[in-house]
Amino acid sequence: MDGNISGGEGDNFDWGTEDEQEIDNFSFSPSCYTLLGRAGSAEASGTKVVDHFVGMGFPEEIVAEAIKENGEENTDLILETLLRYSASSSASSSNSKLIDHFVGMGFSEDLVAKAIQENGEGNTDSILETLLTYSALETLPAEQPHVEEQPQIGEQTHIGEQPHFDSDQFSSEYEGSFLDDFSDMDSCSESEDVTNAVSGEDNRLLFLARMGYTAEDALIAIERCGPDSTVAELTDFICAAQMSKAADLLLGDEDKPRPQPKRKCFHYDILKRKKQLRLEKKLPNDHEELIRLPNPMIGYGVPNESPPFVHRTLPDAAKGPPYFFYENVALAPKGVWDTISRFLYEVEPEFVDSRYFCAAARKRGYIHNLPIQNRFPLLPTPPLTIQEAFPLTRKWWPSWDMRTKLNCLQTCIGSAKLTERIRKALKDSDDDHPPSLAVQKYVLEECRKWNLVWVGRNKVATLEADEVEMLLGFPKNHTRGISRTDRYKSLGNSFQVDTVAYQLSVLKDMFPRGINLLSLFSGIGGAEVALHRLGIPLKNVVAVEISEVNRNIVRGWWEQTNQRGNLIHIADVQEVDGDRLEQLMNSFGGFDLVVGGSPCNNLAGSNRHHRDGLEGRESSLFYDYCRILDLVNCITKRT
């Protein structure tokens, strides 16, 4: 969505690159052993071999023992031995931490050990259920054991005091683990699993897997909690989401009276209080989500694809003019699109992936009252594959990298250290000696995650800001003149111009003499650029944008393209009230189009820690969009 920047002062984005964070919880990193490949050579000295593996995080004594067992020539066998030692050590550590965790919840160590022995340390759900049962039997009177009284919420194993995550309020186009609902990655492949974009270098993934969590849950927990999160934080996140899921299953039974035992287990009291908290937070209109994401995501049709059969009827209240056009991320939390549709006159959203318009994916939803017939794309047609967009990469592109599309262009990029690690991992590879499958997997995951392209033999690089501008349909140097960080930030939160222009193209015949535009949260002017490229004159543009950097970008573009109309900038959306709108509309005859897209900070993207849906600080600006649109409609009808 265009202009999803609410100013640099208060943004809650995580600008640090994840691959640079140090992991204190573990003795080694799988990214290191994945990269080993052919690092060893026959002539490597024993000291160098020891230093190499010690540098990867293995203890020197263990390295020496592994070399003694396998010889210093075969580094692959040494690595396998070290991994075996480490796995054994981690398993023991996992068991110890699991015991400590349940002991910390108030269970006796003997009871915990017995429960783990019965259920295995991987099944934490059954462990907690068993512990609760034991506790109930010990504390309740013999004549009223009421074992069935204990709520079956095995998923509450690692609740602690972490914030409550309501997993049922999230949605995703992917099927599988309920934690998929928390994923922020926007994949360019419809069939590609969301976890493909998450790096496998974090050793916490292996540790969580040994604790019994699925790989999908562990990957998404790492993605949501951030690169520097501890194992305790990750397990708390996963189990908080599991607890929320389990609590929802119990909501339907709230009206049924339950026989109460004479005495209650302390842990049952805890679970009951958490369940009551969940009930208090329950939305009044909690229902099954009505709006589902389509696959493929082609909306009412895209160029070069067979159009779907669509019969669209707009509610009377939604019919224009004035026309409105609102964009938001497609993979929003559960219920968000139902809410957006309800506030925008019950108009159903149109979901479109920009992969059909350019060489990068960008899954977005649009609610608008524009006609859907006689659309046309911008010309010339932009490059639709990576190789078309960057032809110089063909020479260096390895045969095992099958990507033709980039993933969603983000607000930050990979680091120089990451690309250097990839280069070292591939340094002994060539056409005749491709890297091992493990190295290929590691490299491809990082390339997908950070949109890396091949610029030399075994050399990858991040996209430059100029290249991102081109992929998003902006003119060259559109954002030039501001800091590199701000360029990526502004571009990552903008419209994909070709996609938006295709939907706005129906306005060209309707407004041949020009259009009056109200652009809310206009960012770097994606809507303005789209209308200009369509050949629709911009008579009067009122752009509401809090970021001075973005306002300067739009002002510069306005002057560079010799616009003849009027550009009025308003910094604070709260200044746009009924009186201000009436003054503006009386001065030039009203607005023909109201465009907007509230910042996605609380819906997806880089901000993993404050994904609060439409109630988040930035995304709640959606309600300002609705307020202003209603005012525009009222003033239009009155005049």
UniProtKB/TrEMBL annotation:
Q: Could you tell me the EC number(s) of this protein?
A: 2.1.1.37
Task: State the top-level EC class.
Answer: transferase
Q: Give the SAM-dependent MTase DRM-type domain ranges.
A: 310-639
Q: Would the keyword RNA-binding be found if you checked this record's keyword annotation?
A: no
Catalytic residues identified in the record: 600
UBA domain: which residues?
Answer: 93-134
For this entry, list what GO says about its biological process: methylation
**What is its subcellular localisation?**
Nucleus
User: What would be one Gene Ontology cellular-component term for the protein?
Assistant: nucleus
A UniProt-annotated Pfam family: DNA_methylase
Keywords carried by this UniProt record: DNA-binding, Methyltransferase, Nucleus, Repeat, S-adenosyl-L-methionine, Transferase
Q: Which domain of life is it from?
A: Eukaryota
**Record-level Gene Ontology MF annotations:** DNA (cytosine-5-)-methyltransferase activity; DNA binding
Q: Which InterPro entries match?
A: C5-Methyltransferase, C5_MeTfrase, SAM-dependent_MTases_sf, SAM_MeTfrase_DRM, UBA
Q: What family classification does the UniProt entry report for this protein?
A: Belongs to the class I-like SAM-binding methyltransferase superfamily. C5-methyltransferase family.
What name does UniProt use for this protein? DNA (cytosine-5-)-methyltransferase
